[in-house]
Structures are given as C-alpha cells and as structure tokens.
Amino acid sequence: MSKTILALNAGSSSIKFGLFGVTDAEPTYLFVGEVADIGDKPHLTVKDMEGKKRLDRGWLAPRKREDILDDILGWIDQNAGRGGLAAIGHRIVHGGSQFVASLRLNRKNLDELALLTPMAPLHQELCLAPARTLLSLRPDVTQVGCFDTAFHAALEPPASRFAIPRSYEEGGIRRYGFHGLSYEFIAGSPPLT
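The structure assignment produced for this chain is given below.
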C-alpha cells in the first residue's frame, strides 16, 4: 500500500481523525476514527469508508492522551499497510496574526503557538499536545498545522473589532472567527446540485 496521511482534530473530550492513502493521484480516504469520552471512559472506534467497524475498543478509566495516540499509531501500523505515515496534519484553533497559513510544525513554533493559549484557553493546548507527543513518537514524520483562525485573518475593521472595545484593538486584540477550516472548505467546494 502507499504511504498514508493522518489528519487529527483534537478537542476537549475527543480526538477525531481520518487516514488517507497517498498515491500519484489524489489522496483517498481510507479510515475515519474517533476517541470519545477521553476524560471519563475513552472509547476508540475506527471505520472503513463503507462504514464497517474495523476497531471498537473501550477503557473503563481515563487514559493519558499520549497513550491513546500511541494506540492509534499502533493500529495504523498494523492495518494501513507497510507504506508508513508520510505526514500528520493537525487542526489548531488559534494561529493569531503570525500564523495565517499552514506550516510545518516543530518544537519552536509549537512553543510560539502555546503563547496564544489565553486567546483560546479551553482548546489551544489540547490542539498542540498531540503534535508535541507525535514529535516524540514519530520524529521522522512531517507534521503540519492548519489554523482555524487563518480563514478570518484578513478581516478588516470594523469586522475585526466587532463586539470588542476599540481600546482592546489598540492593545493588539482583534476579533477572529473560528471554524475557519470548515468555512474554507465550504467556500472552496463546488456548489451542491
């Protein structure tokens, strides 16, 4: 089998992911998975593109996210062929004004992105943690961050300051929209017929 790309969306209580096969043509969707209820009784489900469950595994107690990521990688290694991971893509909530395009992740820019945690305190660190873990587990695999705020980075006043005091804007605070990756996909997709 060809190499694969893992796309991760880490949230507050779940990790959703997709696995794509990479050939000379367009990537093909292979599997979709989710780890739900991470803080309570985690449950890992993986389905193929026909909807058939390929893995259905639960734990009776919370698990470390690092261990869950290691389980996901182990399953990929055993079930997605011997081509190996070519890359891992991460949805990251906040890129601020500095990160407005996808970029290759490394420890330095992950630390810079962590400085934006006060802008999205419930989500930012949870998005960054898998990239840090995977840098340790698979240091040879390219990781790319894609930012929810990037789609809205070009907003200009008054939209960029809507609902915040002007004094905040003067201090460097601005309004960002979230879910930008979804909006970008919708805006770039052909219309439904």
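Interim note for the steering committee: The chain has one domain: 3-147. The helical segments are 65-79, 107-114, 124-137, 166-170, 180-188.
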